[in-house]
Amino acid sequence: MKIKYFEYIAIYLSVFLACIFIGYAAREYFIRNGADEFTINLFFWVGIGLGVLIFVFVILFLDPIVTWTVKQFSKNAKSKLVEKQETDSKNTQILNSVKKIEIPFENIADINSVRKTQQEIKIQQDQEKLQIALNYTKQEFALYVSDKDLDFLCDSVASYSRKESISDSILVETKNLSTTDLYHFGWNIWKHFGGSSHLYQQEIAAFLKSTFQKLNKLDIGTIKSHLTDPDTKETVIKLQEDLAEYK
Question: 208-229 pLDDT, tens per residue?
């Protein structure tokens, strides 16, 4: 037997007992008032019938009303729940939008930090590269120029590395160095600071012309065309692909 059958039995049994109770109560009332047997029995069954009518009235009329009331209550509760969920959803979307707006600011801070770090690394690398060039210059020219001219030459190399113009008011005077030596020095410095194409050797040729007395009378085109003249036994400054050994 299914569970709902027990539910129906319980409901109808309860109604039946309630009706008997109503009939019994009516019977007792009339017994106390001295009614005859017929009247007592009549009102006993009338009481039972009244209980049945009340039950039928509840089933036919009150149950739909109760059901409708419950549905309305459930509908309102559900509507409020949906409204609350929509409100929560909107609030969540707003929070997510705020977070999305905040993310670019965090990214900008990260980018600025990375940019600053990279700039510091580049400055350090440029300083290291310049120091190598200065060490190389001092080693190559220590025996062939005066201390004053060597300082000026180092300053000129530093200016060249920063792409600054070099004044030709002071010219370095060299001893026992050929023009080929000076050409090779210029080419090595140019190569060290990132020179890769012969089309862009104009600047290093101008640097040599503005720095060395022996080359000052030559035009830039001539100097440029001799930068890679081959080494000989008499050449003091040799062509070098890399100056890392002077670190």
Answer: 999 999 999 999 999 999 999 9
